Structure formats: structure tokens, C-alpha cells
Amino acid sequence: MSVPSRKPRVAVMFGGRSLEHDVSVVSGLQILHAVDPERFQPMPIYIDQALRWWTGDDLWHTETFKSGGPDRSRLTEVALSAGFGTSTLMPVEGARAGSRAIPVDVFVPVMHGTFGEDGSLQGLLELGGCAFVGCGVTASAVGMSKRLTKIVAAQALVPVIPWVSCERRVLDHGSAWLTDLPAEVASTLGWPVIVKPCNLGSSAGVSTARTPDELLTGVLKVFEYDVEAIIEPFIGNRLEINVAVAGLDTPVASVTEMPVTNQASPLSFSEKYKRQGTKSVGSQGMAGALRVLDPDDLPAEMKARAQRYAVTVFKALGCEGISRIDFIIDADAHRLYFNEINTLPGSLAFYLWSAAPHHWTITDLLTRLIARAERLSAMKRGLQRQPPAELRLLS
């Protein structure tokens, strides 16, 4: 009698040490519960703020992460095994008695911000030859930098908002920047401007500046969170519109969405991730935000252009998995601008796929993305690793 093969094990990774640790936990639990248990064996991997990896049954439950977080004595600490292509989680020294190695077929990173969304974790998985859902190192790292992404988008002929950037190292080079930066901003962008971190996925450190003094204060605030500030003109009469793209065999754009924002200021971290209207992040994450899907009053041509630009940016960066691409509409000039990309949007922006024409559930999406991750990993493992004879110097 043949022994039935086990279902592929899918490890959902969440947590991390970024400012968005809690958001990642919420998204990760949503994804964990959405993996099809008829096809896969889902398991949680919680990465704490010290970057230690843990697994265990307690991690399935939201209550575990309240009142100080998980009880480590009830969890098993694990680490990715050495060796290319092994894709196994090994109990670390001192782990709970009886802990065993856990083979993993596909990893699903649901990390937000630094040390998770920026290519760091993806690099570790690539080194191990692991199959994983989502962008690789290059797309993750470039997508994390608003400045670099703008350069790529502009090269792909997608309109971008003008910008000026300022790196934190100016603090080590005297005081000239205190006058040079405001002068450059005034001549290039004018006033007022938006000041924000270049490499963060949240809205922490974002401010509006109307004077040179406010600009410098805003930049110094950014430097508490990031090594680079990016400055853009403030568009007063603006609309925000977002589109998700799924990296299937042919990249597919979702419907558009329009977040409900306060026109007087940029969308804050609290507006994005905490209680809004009658819905809360505790149950629905970003899907609980106030938003309008496929807004009726937005011209069809504008929606189609946003979808087209979103796919263009996705392909130009070499993205995989699901990314959400955010745009700004200058309502006075009737112009659409690329704003930024989220290469790991909360809960894979599943609400954008639930409407027509796709009607995909989050479970449908995950099944498709897991299958693609397995195919891509098999393709990479099959690449030639032996150098040609003319490059063998030690034979």
C-alpha cells in the first residue's frame, strides 16, 4: 500500500521589528486563516522585534498578541536550516523538548516596512533556495525607496510628482544645508510641500511645510525614523486612487479604490491603520478603512489609465505576488501621478479583488500565488550552477 503524500506546508511569516509590527500581525493572521486547508498545511511563523522566529499553535489567535504578546514558553523557537534548497525550520538550541525539524514548501512573508518588506527577508529566503510568495530582493528593495521607485516609474514613462531628496548624512557636513535645502525646494517645488520618509511603509514622520523653518523641522523629524527625506509639492485639491496588481502568469490589475482622506493633510498612520468610521483594524485591517471601490464619479478613462500605469510599474520593478500601487490625482489640473508602491500590502489587498470582474476570494488568490511561487522556485533551482570550463580556475 502506498503512503499518501503530505499536503504542501505553507509558512505564513509576520511580525518583525518595523514600526508596522502590529499591522503585520493583523495581516499575517488574516492570511494564515485564509490559506486553503484542503490543499495545504498552513503554519504561523511569528518574528518578534528582536528578529527571533517562533512557531506554535498559540500563534493562530489574535488574543495571543495582546497584553505583552505571546508566551514564549508555549512556543518553539526556530531558524532556517543551513544549505541551499533544504527549506527546513530547525529548532534552535534550548527549544522545547520534543521539537522537530519542520520542512516548509512555500513561505508567505506578510511583513511590513523595514527588515521584511525591503528585501532583507527575501534575501535570506533566496540564499536558502526557498520558494516564497511575493517580490524578490531587487523589487522589494527598490520598491521600498520612494525616490528609486519614482526614477524607475519615470523611466517607464509613468508620470511622477517632482521631488527633492535629502539624506541624513548632511547633518555631518556642516550647516550649509540649512539654507541650501530651503532654497532648492523654493526654486524647484515652491510652497507648501509634503515632507516624508523615503524608505518607510507607514505614514510616521510625514508633515506639511509652508515655510523654510517648517521644512527643516519636518526633515529633522524624518531623520528620527529614516536615513533619507523626500520632499514633494503639496497638491491641495487632490484625490488618491489605488490599484493592486497580481503577478500571475500575466500581471492583472484590480479595480480601483479611492480612500476617504482629509484634504488638509496627508493620510496619517492612524487614519490608515486604526479605527475608521464603524470598522476597525482588529477585524479587517486595511479592508476596514473608509474607501470607495470602483468610484462611479471617476472617469472610466482615468481608472483605465491608473490600471495601465500600475501594471507598467509592477513589470518595470520586476514584482511578484501582489503589490498595491498608489496614485494621486491633481483635480485642478486633471492629471494622474504615480505616488508609491506597496510591495506587501496588508492582507494582499484582497478586498480589491472581491469585486467584478474578478470575484476572487483571498483564498483563491493565495492558491494561485503559492502555485506560482513553487513554479518560480523550481525554475531557479534548475538554473546552471556550474561555471563553464574557462572560468574554472581551481580545477
Topology:
Layout (H helix, E strand, L loop, with lengths): L8 E7 L5 H14 L6 E7 L5 E3 L20 E5 L7 E4 L10 E2 L2 E4 L10 H8 L9 H8 L1 H10 L8 E4 L9 H12 L4 E5 L9 E3 L2 H11 L5 E6 L4 E10 L4 E8 L9 H5 L7 H4 L6 E3 L6 H18 L3 E10 L4 E8 L19 H20 L14
Parallel strand pairs: 1-2, 1-7
Antiparallel strand pairs: 2-3, 3-4, 4-5, 5-6, 8-11, 9-10, 9-11, 12-13, 12-15, 13-14, 15-16
Mean pLDDT: 89
Please indicate the percent range of residues in DSSP E strands (runs of 2 or more).
Answer: 15-25%
Alpha carbon gyration radius: 22 Å
Report strand order across the widest sheet: 6-5-4-3-2-1-7
CATH names the topology of the largest domain as D-amino Acid Aminotransferase, Chain A, domain 1
Shape: globular
Look at the helices and sheets and give the structural class: alpha+beta
Label the CATH architecture of the largest domain: 2-Layer Sandwich
| CATH homologous group name of the largest domain | ATP-grasp fold, B domain
**Fraction of helical residues:** 25-40%
List SSEs in N-to-C order.
EHEEEEEEHHHEHEEHEEEHHEHEEH
Structure notes:
The protein has 395 residues and is an alpha+beta fold. It folds into 3 domains: 9-133, Rossmann fold, CATH 3.40.50; 143-159 and 236-359, D-amino Acid Aminotransferase, Chain A, domain 1; 164-233, ATP-grasp fold, A domain (Dna Ligase, domain 1), CATH 3.30.1490.20. Helix content is 28%, strand content 23%. A 7-stranded mixed sheet has the order 6-5-4-3-2-1-7, sandwiched between helices. A hairpin with a 4-residue loop joins strand 12 (238-247) and strand 13. Helix 5 (177-188) crosses helix 6 (212-222). The longest helix is centred in the C-terminal third of the chain and has 20 residues, at 362-381. Mean pLDDT is 89; it is low at 268-288.
